[in-house]
Design goal:
This protein is 0% helix and 52% strand. The chain has 350 residues and is mostly beta strands. Strands 4, 5, 6, 7 and 8 form a 5-stranded antiparallel sheet that branches. It has a 4-stranded antiparallel sheet with strand order 3-2-1-29, with no helix packed on it. Strand 26 and strand 27 form a beta hairpin.
């Protein structure tokens, strides 16, 4: 499972409004995956979600500030000490929860305002003033969570031709192309999911032929065919995370697919578990086969180490990042250790 690629640092986002200290920097033991804190970037409020881009002049770390009037900050992390690339830039949207780098632009999913923002990047990788803000429309049957659109994720497809926006509020996945010259999103279509799904995040099969949409309001994975030529996402079946049901209030958060396409993992807040689903050779059938503790409480994010040998759960309410070794045959995770990180929310590796 994986190509043995080594990384030596992890960056961990957190909610400063809930006791987090900012972005925690940790060393990664290449043999065991253990994390050891080596620093903190404390200049940004609520840096809840992070991503790293390697396509520019050097590795750059990007972070959203998930505040009422959200922003994006960038840091040059080529050297031993992270260096800010200018001041944070406003996204002209509220409560950005996710971001991606696409063809020289940073895109943010703004939850509270139900919008996606496009910010062009300067030559050094720093974000510039937002050039486009695309507002979603629609609602869902849950009056408390779906009275309007709520953008929760925005990411490129594996081909790099399309941008997909996951909308929890309207039970939709929006599909765009990015006009990189103009710095704007061009609508290509939309995919509706069963009412009340509350889609939060999706993950692609390594072949690029399928995508798996995780419901936050309904604990399911919707398996979709992905047509990269036309930019069309087609739901084909739904897999429950709890085949026998559950009496607990649950809130699934993050899907992860193994590099070999054999396993899909989903973090579930409430039960504080990781569901393991087996994928067939086509990628079109997902079957839950195991559920194990995530190692803490309220796993907001779940990330696969680039080696493919272990998972990391950012457990927000227990305030830690737990690493779990993966059985290469079954894909079942087993807790191996944890690092205290108050109000942990996301993890990326460099």
């Amino acid at each position: 499972m994986g190509d043995g690629k080594r990384t030596d640092r992890a960056f961990i986002g957190s909610f400063t409004s809930s006791g987090g200290r900012g972005i925690v920097v940790a060393a990664v033991d290449p043999a065991t995956g253990a994390l050891t804190e080596i620093g903190v970037i404390d200049s940004l409020p609520d840096p809840s979600y992070l991503t790293v881009d390697h396509t520019g002049p050097g590795p750059v770390l990007y972070a959203v500030s998930e505040t009422a009037h959200g922003s994006v900050a960038a840091y040059d992390i080529a050297g031993p000490e992270p260096r800010p690339l200018g001041a944070p830039v406003a996204v002209r949207g509220d409560s950005p929860t996710h971001l991606s780098v696409v063809r020289g632009h940073v895109l943010t999913a703004n939850y509270a305002s139900g919008s996606v923002t496009v910010l062009p990047l300067a030559a050094d990788g720093g974000p510039r003033t937002a050039g486009d803000v695309r507002h979603y429309t629609g609602s869902g049957p849950d009056p408390a969570r779906q009275s309007g659109p709520h953008a929760h994720q925005v990411l490129p497809d594996p081909s790099g031709r399309w941008v997909l926006g996951v909308d929890l509020g309207a039970d939709k996945v929006w599909i765009f192309s990015l006009d990189a010259q103009e710095g704007r999103l061009v609508p290509n279509g939309e995919t509706s999911l069963p009412p009340g799904t509350g889609p939060r995040h999706l993950a692609f099969h390594p072949s690029g032929s399928h995508a798996y949409v995780l419901g936050e309001l309904d604990p399911t994975v919707t398996v979709c065919r992905w047509d990269a030529a036309a930019g069309v996402l087609e739901p084909v079946r739904t897999a429950p995370l709890f085949p026998d049901g559950t009496d607990e209030a649950v809130s699934p958060s993050a899907p992860v697919v193994s590099p070999d396409g054999r396993h899909l993992w989903a973090a579930v807040r409430g039960t504080d578990t990781i569901t393991v689903l087996a994928l067939d050779a086509t990628g079109e059938h997902a079957e839950p086969v195991a559920s194990v503790p995530c190692g803490g409480r309220w796993p907001r994010d779940l990330v696969l180490h680039p080696s493919g040998t272990r998972l990391y759960a950012a457990n927000e309410r227990s305030g830690d990042v737990t690493w779990l070794d993966l059985d290469p045959a079954t894909g079942v995770p087993r807790r191996a250790g944890s690092l205290p990180v108050p109000a942990a929310s996301s993890v990326v590796f460099v």
